[in-house]
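Any chance you'd type out a single protein's sequence alongside its tokenized fold?
>
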Amino acid sequence: MSFFTDMLNRLTDRYKKDPNSNIGKVIKILADELDLIKETFDRIEEWRDVEKAEGAVLNDLGANIGQPRGAATDEIYRVLLRSKVARNFSDGTIDTIIRVLSIALNTDPKEVRIQELHNDPISPEPAAIGLIQIPLRRLNEIGMSPRQFAQIVQKTAAAGVRVASIELSGTFSFSSLPSQSEYSDTQGFADIDQTIGGYLGAMFTDADDTNLPV
């Protein structure tokens, strides 16, 4: 119920409770201002949540936990804030790294898989890990590059452990039927309007990119 309706209903029956009456118009002027004040306080309350805060308010939240923004967008900065808090409780184990990354990306831990490379059959390395499954969909939604994500992963891993590779799994697939295109919301070729369809995966490689302050 708006302030206007509530205030009008609280009028004594001595007055005509018509919104278009003179007393109704006076109350409307006051109620509109009260609605704006309430809207402002509601926004202040909501913006205490890192998922809803924007701009300078996010910067203030970052200052509280010692995480600068740098050149990060709001979406990427939210990832930095979530990962910063989660990393404070990280012990460097594989399970903890998975938990930190799933919190940072706001995704299910089942979508993150890590492999220790000390017994890799092709290129074994004693103190290295490889991420063999990360939801590329989330990075696309956030606008974060594979290299930027690799910075967060490396910061999460234990000291002296190298992040050798990151495989970002896509959903693109060919048709299961010969000589026939197949469309879906999650995989395959796009429709003619390119509103649905899958996306290719990616592999992290070191290249020029915007560094994140992690």
Notes: Residues 203-208 have pLDDT under 50 and may be disordered. The first strand starts at residue 113 and ends at 116. Residues 82 and 111 are 17 Å apart (CA to CA). The helical segments are 3-9, 22-46, 55-65, 74-87, 94-105, 136-142, 146-156.
